[in-house]
Amino acid sequence: AYSIYNPKVGYCQGMTSIAGILLMLMPAEQAFWCLVSIMNKYLPGYYSDGLLAVQLDGRVMESLVHDIDPEISAFLGRNDVQATFYAVEWFLCAYTRTLPWETVLRIWDMFLCEGVKVLIKTGVTLILLAFSDKKVRDVCDSFDKALKYLKYRLPKQLLEEDFFVNELLGLHITEEQLKENHLAQLAKLQDIYR
What we know:
194 residues, 13 helices, 73% helix
């Protein structure tokens, strides 16, 4: 239905995950209009050709990880693990395919109040939790191992609702940092696509 309502954007597979959550929580017509609102207010450009908004937010996320923990950032760089390899699914599906149901609902509560910055902060939290232990970084010593660990093998206790949300809320990322990173990464993307 959304692709008919907004043919310019059309259909993207990630939308079904968002629509599915909404349909579990409300009647179909309400879910549709809620989806329209989310697409227009929080995720404009996420489902456009080239996924430019997703690329931008992935770069912002990487930049914030670098600011918070340069060692983890360097580890990801050494293994060539770029946000485009994991964040596309995270962002397009708003973590519905990544996190346990209870955690997704808590993230969505924040997302619907605060917007896309919650998706970015959630990604930063996932990366920091995944690779904060040097032993894990030593074992994940290649692109394949690091990416598989990040996407499929995170310990369940790291993703448990209360623990994860407390870690997310404990991140010290200011609005100013988000804005500065957004503007810097936007300029870099614009240079690439000139």
